[in-house]
Please model this.
Amino acid sequence: MSSEKRSMQEILSDQFRITAELSRMTGEYHRLLQKVAAAGFARQMAEDDPGPALAEAERIEIAAKLTAETCELQVEALEKQLSALGRELSDLT
Model:
């Protein structure tokens, strides 16, 4: 197996692409955190009258949290990729 080094232009291109995706995903993550907060508030309001409304509010809150956690993991993966590209770039110099 040969480990052919990529050109600086290829690395920078990947860096630019991942940075753009990271920016988009970070914005999405913050939007999802707002949705989690709103779902938590709705659940708190539904606690006054336990029943189907409370169960639905809890379900919505759990779903919002899981979606936000998934997005957070994607952001972390992109950050790791960006870090690896930085190391690859520094290895060229």
Observations:
- The two ends are 23 Å apart (CA to CA).
- The chain has a mean pLDDT of 93.
- Helices lie at 8-46, 52-92.
- Residues 21 and 78 are 8 Å apart (CA to CA).
